[in-house]
Amino acid sequence: VLRYPGGTTHLIWFSVANWDGVEKVLNGMEAQLAKLAADEAKSNGAPRARRQQPAKTTAERSREVFDGSKTRDWLTRDLVANYGPPPAAGVLPFTRYNFVKVRPGKGADYRRAWEKYSKPVYDKLLADGVVLAYGLAVEEVKTEGDFTHFVWVATANMGAADKIGPAFTADRNRRSEEERNAVAETFASLTEPDKARSMVTRARIFRMPGR
User: Fold this and answer.
1) What is the distance between the alpha carbons of residues 42 and 21, in angstroms, rounded to a whole number?
2) Torsional sign, CA 124, 127, 131, 136
3) Residue from 113, 46, 45, 47 nearest 80 by CA
4) Region of 208 on the Ramachandran plot (φ > 0 left; ψ -120 to 50 alpha; else beta)
5) Is the pLDDT at 154 greater than 60, yes or no?
6) What pTM value is reported for the model?
7) Beta carbons of 199 and 98 less than 8 angstroms apart
8) CB under 8 Å, gap of 24 or more: what pairs does 14-22 form?
9) How many CA atoms lie within 13 A of 125 on its CB side?
């Protein structure tokens, strides 16, 4: 949703239960590409025999469309994740990612603080139907130095996203000033605030099991 010079234009993601699931998806994609290549080779045989220009193959069109030198892969793992009912057919969720850098050796403390102070707010938003799903995640294979953890929150539309900030404000306002300060100091002591970054994406194709 938020573009910037030289930035990512598209993301393709899939979710699986474990590493075995990753391998199965990759094998399935390779098999599909091989099938497409074989089918296209057969279809293009006749034009070549007539010395006509054959249609471009999937591989050729992919090389034209994608800048392979800028492709990047991520393998992440949810530490915490919660999902509401499947969204209605045709919903293309918006997802906000909040990246943070936790100080060395403080990962467990950060997770405990997040589950104590942030998770209950997200759980209520989920129960109220405001968010579709949320999670706290890390890279399973570490490739990035600018962040250690990220929170992702999916909503059916941007109007629902408008309600997330006020929900956190209401939660904090219910606490005493002393407790509010303690919460703020806890997160500030566990993270490097100047490293925090966010991004918002919108699905163009979205599928769930059974749909």
Assistant:
1) 32
2) positive
3) 113
4) beta
5) yes
6) 0.88
7) no
8) 22/75
9) 27
Dihedral sign computed on CA atoms, order 159, 161, 166, 167: positive
The secondary structure of 22-87, three-state, reads: HHHHHHHHHHHHHHHHHHHHHHCHHHHHCCCCCCCCHHHHHHHHCCHHHCCCCCEEEEEEEECCCC
DSSP symbols for 95-115? EEEEEE-BPTT-HHHHHHHHH
For the chain, report the end-to-end CA distance as a whole number of angstroms: 25
CA 90 to the chain's CA centroid: 19
Q: How many residues does the chain have?
A: 211
> Any idea which residue has 């303690």 for tokens?
182
Tokens of 102: 């936790």
The CA-CA-CA angle for residues 85, 88, 91, to 5°, reads 115
Helix and strand counts by DSSP (H, E) for the chain: 8, 5
pLDDT in tens, 27-58: 999 999 999 999 988 887 776 667 777 788 89
157 SS3 class: coil
